[in-house]
């Protein structure tokens, strides 16, 4: 074996039961790595999860993952991380909504479960890397540092939900699908060629711990109902609600105001106040955000240089890029100014900064700055 020959790694493949993670595990094994499959049991009462497998954590999913591992020819285990998942993801999700913020549980799961709890356990057992079916790319630089980049196929890129990974986590992350330009149908065709039963399985879109997809109902069962007012920007009461946690910034449907605005145009949720249990609505133009402050920054590899710098930013998992100027203040606070106003920005969401295709890092939005309306 020459010095530049690929190193054979001990790889723990996180197998959700879907097609992407199955093909990723198969590619890692085909590349010559010593691969072991693991499915994460994340529900404290898995029998309560839905059948039909539209998520990634059901009983059916664990069976599908096991069958895929058998076809690939790798050992397979189920690891119980339900308590950690409840504390770090589910409880966080509920607390964030209760505080009037809009969390991203998939991003939190990557940060706290797949590349923290799972990775820590994997390293303790002697594994070199955790492999997942995410579409993103880790680049190894000549100096030994690593960078996280967007997937080769922008249509499937998932780097946004991985923007919380730090340098240590990147050093032990493997994304076999990230540098492929194959389309999703071609991934499914590859799965079929490999004899993987999950080749035709639908993609997961739901929040995995909300069985029926009813987020508001899920929160109501845990937080109860608390009637409050829906008001306009002047404070005029337009209607009532059963819990401010049931709304998100930018929401248009389900406001139940009962009568149109004076100008006849739709109204949107502008603000959520958990202290007064009030939801403020107004016109779309009042959603224009010109800047924000974000906290708890995490850097994918090297941190940014001091002082303001220009980047592109992504604000949602499936959102586009927007030009920004950002500066880290006191090492703990990220201040961002948008070149053009953007809409639908809510506290609790993650902002992920990019330098070209490289993921610079992410932070949690704390406050936003709105454009002052003409004549105000």
UniProtKB/TrEMBL annotation:
Chain ranges of the tRNA-specific 2-thiouridylase MnmA-like C-terminal domain: 290-365
Annotated function: Catalyzes the 2-thiolation of uridine at the wobble position (U34) of tRNA, leading to the formation of s(2)U34.
Keywords: ATP-binding, Cytoplasm, Disulfide bond, Nucleotide-binding, RNA-binding, Transferase, tRNA processing, tRNA-binding
PANTHER family given in the database record: MITOCHONDRIAL TRNA-SPECIFIC 2-THIOURIDYLASE 1, TRNA 5-METHYLAMINOMETHYL-2-THIOURIDYLATE -METHYLTRANSFERASE
Gene name for this UniProt entry: mnmA
Pfam families assigned to the protein according to its UniProt record, in alphabetical order: tRNA_Me_trans, tRNA_Me_trans_C, tRNA_Me_trans_M
Residue positions of the active site: 109, 208
Site (Interaction with tRNA): 134, 349
HAMAP family found in the cross-reference section: tRNA_thiouridyl_MnmA
Catalytic activity: S-sulfanyl-L-cysteinyl-[protein] + uridine(34) in tRNA + AH2 + ATP = 2-thiouridine(34) in tRNA + L-cysteinyl-[protein] + A + AMP + diphosphate + H(+)
Enzyme class, broadest EC rank: transferase
GO biological process: tRNA wobble position uridine thiolation
Protein name from the UniProt record: tRNA-specific 2-thiouridylase MnmA
Domain called tRNA-specific 2-thiouridylase MnmA-like central: residue spans: 217-282
InterPro entries: MnmA-like, MnmA-like_C, MnmA-like_central, MnmA-like_central_sf, Rossmann-like_a/b/a_fold
């Amino acid at each position: 074996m020459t010095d530049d020959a690929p190193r054979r790694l001990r790889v723990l493949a996180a197998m959700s039961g879907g097609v992407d993670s199955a093909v990723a595990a198969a590619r890692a094994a085909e590349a010559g790595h010593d691969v072991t499959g693991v499915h994460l049991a994340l529900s404290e009462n898995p029998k309560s999860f839905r059948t039909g497998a539209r998520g990634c954590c059901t009983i059916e999913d664990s069976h599908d993952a096991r069958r895929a591992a058998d076809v690939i020819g790798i050992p397979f285990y189920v690891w119980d991380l339900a308590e950690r998942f409840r504390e770090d993801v589910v409880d966080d999700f509920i607390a964030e909504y209760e505080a009037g913020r809009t969390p991203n549980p998939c991003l939190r799961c990557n940060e706290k479960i797949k590349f923290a709890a799972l990775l820590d356990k994997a390293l303790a057992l002697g594994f070199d890397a955790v492999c997942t079916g995410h579409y993103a790319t880790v680049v190894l630089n000549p100096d030994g540092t690593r960078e996280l980049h967007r997937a080769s196929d922008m249509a499937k890129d998932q780097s946004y939900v991985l923007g919380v990974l730090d340098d240590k986590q990147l050093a032990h992350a493997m994304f076999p699908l990230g540098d492929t330009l194959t389309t999703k149908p071609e991934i499914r065709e590859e799965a079929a060629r490999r004899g993987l039963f999950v080749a035709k399985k639908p993609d997961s879109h739901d929040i995995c711990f909300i069985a029926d997809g009813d987020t508001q109902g899920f929160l109501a069962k845990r937080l109860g109902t608390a009637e409050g007012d829906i008001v306009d920007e002047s404070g005029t009461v337009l209607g009532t609600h059963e819990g401010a946690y049931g709304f998100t910034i930018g929401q248009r449907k389900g406001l139940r105001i009962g009568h149109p605005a004076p100008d006849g145009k739709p109204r949107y949720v502008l603000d959520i106040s958990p202290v007064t249990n009030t939801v403020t609505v107004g016109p779309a133009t009042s959603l224009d955000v010109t800047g924000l402050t974000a906290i708890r920054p995490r850097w994918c590899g090297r941190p940014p240089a001091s002082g303001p710098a220009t980047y592109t930013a992504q604000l949602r998992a499936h959102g586009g890029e927007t030009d920004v100027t950002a500066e880290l203040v006191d090492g703990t606070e990220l201040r961002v100014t948008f070149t053009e106003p953007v809409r639908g920005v809510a506290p609790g969401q993650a902002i992920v900064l990019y330098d070209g295709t490289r993921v610079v890092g992410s932070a949690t939005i704390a406050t936003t700055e709105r454009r002052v309306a003409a004549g105000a």
